[in-house]
């Protein structure tokens, strides 16, 4: 990880419980400037709760979050310099594509004057210029997700958080969106934290992967090191065995197609 030397985010001993259920148990990790970090784990492992704490939608029971060395644990969401892309896009159905992207820009004093210009620029970046006057319902799922990404990036956040943004998309669209996300990250150099339960997705996108299990970090490392040195049986079973099963399934499918020809 020689490319990543500057700490963008420092998360220390984050704990969170809902009633008697302990969801996060002293979670600590760093995120580097310009890094793509995936939070990988099954449903209920605490990854979405952690994401909501990072953005400020939930308060931790204890622990600390620092961004660029500044304590933001109690800061309001709009004061954290972060943006979030939700699983369900969260677009305004009564606004055009352009209206959705420029909405937040028009609400901020610092971006109000050039909101339209910046929104149009971002729609061009994500390849949706020709759809700017359409309503969200006229777009495909992948296009709606691009609008949500454009809306977030238009605000120029230091960190972009993604909460399983591709889970509702078909396979072809998901593959296309993966390529798009990596292109955008490289173009803007934005730090990205990505929640997913899909092992293949995490390995395709990430500089590092944090594997969560019942509120604890089982392993935080590069995809290569996780494959070569799984930290424990859980990582070996949840990650490597599942990846191998997908590869074997693809190989069988490829052979069956070849035999039919």
Structure description:
By secondary structure, the protein is an alpha/beta fold. The chain has a domain at 1-81 and 193-255: 3-Layer(aba) Sandwich (Rossmann fold). 40% of the residues lie in helices and 25% in strands. It has eight helices and ten strands. The strands form two sheets. A six-stranded mixed sheet has the order 6-7-8-3-9-10, sandwiched between helices. Helix 2 crosses helix 3 and helix 3 (115-125) crosses helix 4. It is globular. The model has no long low-confidence stretch (mean pLDDT 91).
What is the alpha-carbon Rg in Å? 19 Å
Return residue spans where pLDDT drops below 50 for at least 5 consecutive residues.
Answer: none
CATH superfamily of the domain at 1-81 and 193-255: P-loop containing nucleotide triphosphate hydrolases
SSE topology string: EEEHEEEHHHEHEHEEHH
Average pLDDT value? 91
Q: What fold name goes in the CATH topology slot of the domain at 1-81 and 193-255?
A: Rossmann fold
**Straight-line N-to-C gap:** 45 Å
Strand content: 15-25%
Key terms:
Rossmann fold, 261 residues, alpha/beta, 6-stranded mixed sheet, 4-stranded antiparallel sheet, single chain
Give a brief outline of the structure.
The protein is α/β, with parallel strands linked by helices and 261 residues long. The protein has helices spanning 47-55, 97-107, 115-125, 141-154, 171-188, 199-205, 223-228, 233-260; strands at 7-18, 21-32, 36-40, 62-67, 70-71, 82-85, 159-163, 191-196, 208-213, 216-221.
């Amino acid at each position: 990880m020689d490319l990543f030397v500057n700490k963008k985010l420092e998360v220390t001993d984050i704990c969170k419980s809902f009633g008697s259920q302990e969801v996060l148990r002293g979670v600590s990790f760093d995120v580097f400037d310009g890094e793509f970090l995936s939070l990988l784990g099954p449903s209920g492992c605490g990854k979405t709760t952690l994401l909501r704490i990072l953005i400020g939608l939930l308060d931790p029971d204890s622990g600390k979050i620092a961004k660029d060395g500044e304590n933001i644990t109690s800061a309001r969401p709009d004061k954290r310099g972060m943006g979030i892309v939700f699983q369900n896009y969260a677009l305004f159905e009564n606004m055009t594509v352009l209206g959705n992207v420029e909405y937040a820009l028009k609400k901020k004093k610092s971006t109000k004057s050039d909101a339209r210009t910046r929104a149009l620029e971002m729609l061009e970046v994500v390849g949706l210029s020709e759809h700017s006057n359409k309503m969200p319902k006229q777009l495909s799922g992948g296009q709606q997700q691009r609008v949500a990404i454009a809306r977030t990036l238009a605000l120029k956040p230091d960190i972009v958080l993604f909460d399983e943004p591709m889970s509702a998309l078909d396979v072809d669209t998901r593959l296309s969106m993966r390529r798009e996300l990596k292109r955008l990250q490289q173009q803007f150099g934005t730090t990205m934290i990505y929640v997913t339960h899909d092992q293949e997705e995490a390995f395709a996108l990430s500089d590092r992967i944090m594997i969560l299990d019942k509120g604890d970090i089982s392993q935080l490392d590069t995809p290569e090191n996780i494959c070569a040195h799984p930290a424990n049986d859980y990582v070996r079973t949840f990650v490597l065995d599942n990846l191998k099963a997908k590869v074997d399934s693809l190989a069988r499918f490829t052979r069956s197609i070849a035999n039919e020809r």
